[in-house]
Amino acid sequence: MREFLDKMHPLFAKGGKFEKYYAVYEMVDTFFYSPGDLTRGAPHVKDGIDLKRVMIYVWLAVLPCAAFGAWNIGYQANTAMANLGVETIPGWRGALIHLLAGTDPASVWDNFWHGLWYFLPIYIVTFVAGGVCEVIFAAIRNHEVNEGFFVTSILYSLILPASTPLWMVALGIIFGVVIGKEVFGGTGKNFLNPALTGRAFLYFAYPAALSGDAVWTAVDGFSGATPLGLAATGGLEALATNGITWMDAFLGTIQGSVGSTSALLCLAGGLFLMITGVANWRIPAGVAVGMAATAWLFNLIGGENPMMAISPAWHFVLGGMAFGMFFMATDPVSASHTNTGRWVFGALIGAMTVLIRVVNPAFPEGIMLAILFANIFAPLIDYGVMQANIRRRGKRAAMADAA
Hints:
Blueprint: H1 2-12, H2 22-32, H3 51-84, H4 91-100, H5 108-141, H6 148-158, H7 166-180, H8 194-205, H9 207-210, H10 227-241, H11 246-251, H12 263-275, H13 282-301, H14 312-317, H15 321-328, H16 339-359, H17 367-402
Helix pairs in contact: 3-5, 3-6, 3-12, 4-5, 5-6, 5-7, 6-8, 7-8, 8-17, 12-15, 13-16, 16-17
């Protein structure tokens, strides 16, 4: 393969017959092999890691969430079918599911195989639609196709409801890639998280298909609120009435988006990213501090709003808080870059998430909008930190001169 790619290189290099398609050749070459033009000196004096390895680490960290998400989709669907007395699944998905599995909610294989045929089409459509946009922009600009889309595609596909129509999936990722990243210059130049940009677009463009009680379980005719939706209307009493415990939410055996329900696996993936140095620990820590402080403040104030009584521990396991904290907020491009700024950035996300969940009953999730809001202010946060450092150093220099 190496010899074949080297033989093809002159055709795509400058002056070659397919020069304008060099980005496509480079994408294939670097998919199988490390780039031949690695930077070994400054500014990469701290670590020789390249972008491809960083993205692979993130993909590996989120892979358990995807596998568990496939199982949980099937588990929720099979459980609902059992409650409704339904044994067959209509359509092409039903044909594939019944080919090698049944609909027994007690069977790990039945659950995984059922959920796989909801997650896999979403991911394939995401990868193809977004990947085509990436290649088109790279070919027009004669830039390389960056590996950042591997992460964007998996994160985007995991924050959608399993029942999302595939044409909406494609429309959302195209919007996220083009409007959220490529119009600003591509990977490394975007100030918004592309995956969240696409998800936010779908939410506001098609709220009926992306919210409510009927979208979270992939069974026609079944309606059930997520634990966060139940808490928003009835507080902890509503969760207890529906038999949902904190451990259920922590493990992820609840209704929700495709792969963001398990706080345990999100925590494990986040620790992996922080240990490998891909994610900066200050951002999740800042989110935790902001979330806890704001939740405790609402607990202290009290009131008729049932969300005001939700503790920080419950906020962590409800909705997409853990997923956003470890995989979305830590995006090295759209987050703050100074250490102090990362604390402020994370605290802003945590506080805004709880504030949205408590004050805005029409949108109980919060973490998506909070991260996008913080993305907008990240450059301003870093600017303020740097200006404060300049003033502090100026005072120290003045004091030294006076002495």
